[in-house]
Amino acid sequence: MNWIKTVIYTTKEGIEPVCGQLLNVGINGTQIEDEDDFNDFLENNKAYWDLVDDDLIESKKGESKVIFYLAENEYLPENLANVKNAMNFLSDFDTEKNFGRLNIETSVTNEEDWANNWKKYFKPINIGDKITVCPVWENVDEKDRTVFKINPGMSFGTGTHHSTRMCIEYLQKIIKEGDEILDIGCGSGILSIISLMLGAKSAVALDIDPNCEHIAYENAALNGIFEDKYTVYSGNILSDKNLVEKISQKKYDVVEANIIADVIIALAPLAANLVKKGGTFLCSGIILNRSDEVEEALKKYFKIQKVMQSGEWISIACTL
Which of 110, 225, 271, 275 is 20 to 30 A distant from 61 in Cα terms? Predict the structure, then answer.
């Protein structure tokens, strides 16, 4: 099968609104290319190259890109039309043109190229004092750190993004032996699996993308964690009553949600019913200019314990 690589050109301010509109039309597997993230990647990974092509650096300047892939099948025309309509809606809403040109560009890529070419850029990374995230095709010899092996597939969550790193760093400080975890928007399963590796007793994970279910189970197995301690569901927690009923059978010491601002705001009252008294609601994926709005929503149900920032991204830890 061929895949249609789709690029939306926007700005820093436009990344989250664009991703939010894509989520509304059923697209939640996105890749962000941002000039600051690229420069940060270059600065912190100098060991992996001697020279970076000037044309590559030039291509990263100015605009931000939101990239995703659509299957070239009978649903493609409808999916592309939905994306176009969503960007038209966003452009009409953006009267001050803060979100950039919102142009859509498409190209065909072979499935094998898509699945494998990006792997050469994903190297083992140390996060915090305890965790090393290592792709399954690499090997590391870490005696004093916990090595989390990952095969991310098509799902979000490799530890390289600011929001994921902040969550992992904070989890290293708060996870206790015997904790029970809920991971909302689990993607690759990285946060819940690492929580188990840090000593949590059990974890439940869920994601709106059905592909994430088997990917999270696969990544758990790579790290010696199986279904006696780890349960993964697919579904929309904001609309699926059966899913809410399943995960509400108990309360959790830590609820993790590395998603987007709009979902966190909508999720806050439900999360308050899922967190144990004294437990933690750790949310991330919040673009800087939405931080105040998210904090105000969370304060209705939680006490804010810590607000963390990395680049243009915010993570918030709060308790009941």
Answer: 110
In this prediction, residue 198 carries a pLDDT of 97
pTM here is 0.69
Evaluated on CA atoms 35, 60, 160, 103, the torsion sign reads: positive
CA distance 191 to 210: 18
Q: Are 161 and 218 in contact (CB under 8 A)?
A: no
Query: Rounded CA gap, 77 and 75, in Å?
Result: 6
CA-to-CA distance for 247 and 244, rounded, in angstroms?
Answer: 5
Residue 56 amino acid letter: L
Per residue in 75-110, pLDDT (tens digit) is 787 788 889 888 988 998 888 899 999 999 998 766
Q: To the nearest whole percent, how much of the chain has pLDDT over 90?
A: 51
Residue 226 CA to residue 41 CA, distance in Å, equals 33
Q: Are strands 131-135 and 64-71 parallel, antiparallel or unpaired?
A: unpaired
Distance of alpha carbon 164 from alpha carbon 148, whole angstroms? 14
CA pair distance 149, 32, nearest whole angstrom: 23
Distance CA 275, CA 106 (A): 43
3-state secondary structure 244-293: HHHHCCCCEEEEEEECCHHHHHHHHHHHHHHEEEEEEEEEEEEEHHHHHH
Residue 31 CA: distances (Å) to CA of 64, 128, 232, 252: 11, 24, 23, 30
